[in-house]
Amino acid sequence: MADQESVEDAPTRYSDRARTAITAAQEQAHRYGSAQIDTEHVLLGLVAAGDGVAAAVLTTIGISLETVGQHMEPAVRCAPASTGVPSLAAGAQGALDRASTEATKCGDDYVGTQHLLLGLLSADDSKAASVLSTLGVTYARVLDGYLRLLSPFTGAAPYSRQEPPGGKRQAAPRIELPLELGQYNQRIAEAQRQKEAAVDTQDYDAAAAARMTEKAVLAERNALIRRWAADIDAVVLIDEIDRLYQEVDRLKAGLGSRDSWPAGEC
Is the pTM of this model over 0.70? Predict the structure, then answer.
């Protein structure tokens, strides 16, 4: 299948923590002498990856990564001994494929730890899903936790399991910034213009007054941002910033390729 995700493909589309989880899954399979990387190793990889969106989602529904790890490790201790490089089992491949699908439903162009967790849970016939089920961790609960985690950040769900009219899923809405932010920015810009104009005419008293106004408005703006940020989950915010950085890098790469085009070609 053209859209399959493999361990080798992971770095091209996976977030840093998701790549860490996949690498850790390989290490866990080798550690327990398994000839193949399966869903239980991917789940242990998520545990090893540490803090991330998946960890935050699990915390939201009352489960810690440590608890998952404690219940997961006994399930892998009976793996057959193997000293070779573990290959990717069909179950784990299916989980990676489904994680990619979950990312697409979110409107994301990367696969994060939350998508890996949803990918593991979207099929209930794996060892990882079985262990998670004993802890009360189901696809529905994780998805609900994810939506609750994102709700202060976006004001809406990132995606729906149901197909909307027309059969197209909508991308996640952008973060809602404080409505007053634009007004503060305009007031700061106006104070800066007044200060520069006063300096040009050597009216230093007016320049000092404009500078004081600029500082006062800036302080009000920063206080507004801090109040707004208090309701934003830091993990989600960093994850979104990382996504934006990746998008900027992608656009820069596109512009760079245009600079190398021969003259007259479009």
Answer: no
CA distances from residue 246 to 27, 106, 175 in whole angstroms, order as listed = 27, 16, 17
Write the single-letter amino acid at 58: L
Which among 31, 57, 60, 63 is positioned nearest to 44, based on CA atoms? 31
Q: What is the pLDDT of residue 166?
A: 40
Cβ atoms of 98 and 49 closer than 8 Å: no
Distance CA 198, CA 207 (A): 5
If you average pLDDT over every residue of the chain, what do you get? 76
The whole-angstrom separation of Cα 185 and Cα 26 is: 49
Rounded distance between C-alpha atoms, residue 256 and residue 184, angstroms: 35
What is d(CA 46, CA 234) in angstroms, rounded to the nearest whole number? 19
Q: Which residues does 47 contact at the CB level (< 8 Å), separation at least 6?
A: 65, 66, 68, 69, 72
Q: Which residues pair with 14 in a beta bridge?
A: 111
**pLDDT 10s digits, 119-167:** 999 887 788 888 898 889 988 888 888 777 766 655 444 444 433 334 3
pLDDT over 70 percentage in the chain? 72
Burial, 47: exposed, middle or buried (Cβ in 10 Å; 0-12, 13-18, 19+)? Answer: buried
The Cα–Cα gap between 259 and 96 comes to 36
Q: How confident is the model at residue 102 (pLDDT cuts 50, 70, 90)?
A: confident
- Estimate to the nearest angstrom the gap between the alpha carbon of 86 and the chain centroid: 28
